[in-house]
Design a protein that fits this description.
- The protein is an alpha/beta fold.
- The protein has two domains: 159 residues, 3-Layer(aba) Sandwich (Rossmann fold), CATH 3.40.50.720; 89 residues, ProC C-terminal domain-like (ProC C-terminal domain-like fold).
- The chain is 53% helix and 12% strand.
- The protein has an eight-stranded mixed sheet, with helices on both faces.
Length: 274
């Protein structure tokens, strides 16, 4: 089996590291990375092969993972197209449809995926969608590649990846935003910076773990913390008066709308591959 990564940034590094730890032979992984120091670091760290530009090493790949920025995708696909003679293409770039990738690469077998940044520590979640031309074996390999960084949720409708982008792709920033706010409040109450950081992060980690492991809905868990007339009730009353929940939902929808705009901005692919 041969897996090629086009782009060697943080997300590609997380996937490569996860694959190697999961038992993938380093000799079966190749990375194309224009940044020479980054390429050398990946090769030295994981014992994989690599080059600074697409070349004949891409031939015969079972999976070609496109891990470049959206604005670099078209150029990267054009540079790779000559060498893509086998397998499927797996894109982890936001906002570019699988049909567009198929047109740019000349490969009809395209899986589009949206991981999030906690994948860098193996704690991510990925939404994925496969074109009809992708075989069951190819889909299984895509699952294996993406699964090294956390759960993979598949969607038949590729348009749902815009919702994935808004909810989990952008989601870590929402969590960091609220951690920042909680930490700021703790410091204003007298905690030093490290104490505020420790309490804020531990609270989010613990609450998320409880929500994950409990059979009860998060609404029930919230209600259990909220004693009538107590401190939590006072805090939630202020949040409800400010309609923070409504504002937060609207914020997520803003991310969803922007994802759809970006998807449409790339237009339709230049013809369907044979």
């Amino acid at each position: 089996m041969k897996i090629v990564f086009v782009g060697g940034g943080n997300m590609a590094g997380a996937l490569i590291g996860g694959l190697v730890r999961a038992g993938q032979a380093p000799a079966s992984i190749w990375v194309v990375e224009v940044d020479a120091p980054r390429l050398a670091a990946l090769k030295n760290q994981y014992g994989i092969g690599g080059s600074g530009a697409p070349d004949a090493a891409l031939r015969g790949a079972d999976a070609t993972v496109l891990a470049v920025k959206p604005q670099q995708m078209q150029a990267a696909c054009a540079a790779c197209r000559t060498w893509l003679d086998n397998g499927f293409v797996l894109s982890i770039a936001a906002g570019i449809g699988a049909g567009t990738i198929a047109g740019w690469t000349g490969r009809a077998q395209v899986v589009r995926a949206m991981p999030n940044t906690p994948a860098l520590i193996g704690a991510g979640i990925t939404g994925a969608s496969a074109r009809p031309e992708v075989s069951a074996d190819e889909r299984a390999l895509a699952q294996r590649i993406l699964g090294v960084c956390g759960p993979v949720v598949w969607f038949e409708d590729e348009a749902m990846l815009d919702a994935v982008t808004a909810v989990s792709g952008s989601g870590p920033a929402y969590v960091f935003y609220f951690i920042e706010a909680l930490q700021s409040a703790a410091q204003q109450m007298g905690m030093d910076r490290e104490q505020a950081r420790q309490f804020s992060i531990a609270t989010f980690l613990g609450a998320a773990r409880l929500a994950d492991e409990s059979p009860d809905p998060v609404q029930v868990l919230r209600e259990r913390v909220t004693s009538k007339g107590g401190t939590t009730a006072a805090a939630l009353a202020r949040l409800q008066a400010a309609q923070v929940d409504r504002q937060f939902i609207e914020a997520v929808f803003a991310a969803w709308e922007r994802s759809r705009e970006l998807s449409q901005a790339f237009g339709k692919p230049p013809g369907r591959p044979a």
